[in-house]
Amino acid sequence: MQARVPTRASSVGSCSGAFFPGREILEDFSLIFTLRTWWTPEALCVSNMEADLSGFNIDAPRWDQCTFLGRVKHFFNITDPRTVLVPERELDWAKVMVEKSRMGVVPPGTQVEQLLYAKKLYDSAFHPDTGEKMNVIGRMSFQVPGGMIITGFMLQFYRTMPAVIFWQWVNQSFNALVNYTNRNAASPTSGRQMAISYITATTTAVATAVGMNMLTKRAPPLVGRWVPFAAVAAANCVNIPMMRQQELIQGICVKDRNNNEIGHSRRAAAIGITQVVISRITMAAPGMILLPVIMERLEKLHFMKKVKVLHAPLQVLLSGCFLIFMVPVACGLFPQKCELSVSYLEPELQDTIKAKYGELMPYIYFNKGL
């Protein structure tokens, strides 16, 4: 079997073909099944046909990150919810393999498929800035299992005030952990800032949900079902900027094309945080807008009236169906490594760049977070 080796050159233009997410997922299932049947961390099996790893760049994207479809394929790969179940020992192996590949000292007999699988696990579980292992609940790969449960119950239990307050609190607790886990780690956040962000976002979500519930009591039932989405959208507009306020105050770390730090920019931080807010709202929108319409019609059916106990599990399941596609789609709306024109930066930072690089650097780069 000849494996595809992703290099910087080969990754560009790889999105020219049609994109079928189902095909990507099936290929991934096949790859993981194959790896798990003949790989163990203790001993790497040596194939009769060793792959040529000369020129292999493990950090080169498998898909063109300059295109939307390329980014969606990338995030389908690293937000795969199955990676949440991968044991710690295997994640540690993946980190070792990625680090060895970067140094060019992979064990003899290592196959390209092994390295691609290791990079998949590494990207799903380790922070791109620090290389530290992220907590399981805060990983983007946990968005489907965690988000589907919370979203399903928010949409089901929206009628009573205690249920609204409880599920909005649960959702904002989950979001706060996700926002902190996927922040730009180059800008540290204090415990006080996290507490203020958490309290503010939770208060905003609960106030929005409670206020809109009161305003929509006489409105059609479907309008009331959309209240949770309004609360989630409002809270995202508060939670993410508050959690990452240090970046807005001191600036986000910006780098050159070779990953060398140049300085910090508040303008770049504002752009990155705005993109994250848009992505998070987009992630929730289809499920929280369309699912109420679906359930409104299903609940009128005779057999659904007899099985009301199954309404909540059904909403959880349908929420998962939306999220399994919307998580990678929303994450792929904008490049994670943002490119920004130097002319848009603060004047003092522009002067620093021109003094060091002259006119040779038209763009800077930064990790916007997820």
From TrEMBL:
Keywords: Amino-acid transport, Membrane, Mitochondrion, Transmembrane, Transmembrane helix, Transport. GO terms for molecular function: monoatomic ion transmembrane transporter activity. It comes from Vulpes vulpes (Red fox). It holds the Pfam family SFXNs. It comes from the Eukaryota. GO terms for biological process: serine import into mitochondrion. The keyword GTP-binding does not apply. PANTHER family: SIDEROFLEXIN, SIDEROFLEXIN-2. GO terms for cellular component: mitochondrial inner membrane. The keyword Ion transport does not apply. It is found in: Mitochondrion membrane. Belongs to the sideroflexin family. This is Sidoreflexin. The chain crosses the membrane at residues 195-215, 268-294, 314-334. It is a multi-pass membrane protein.
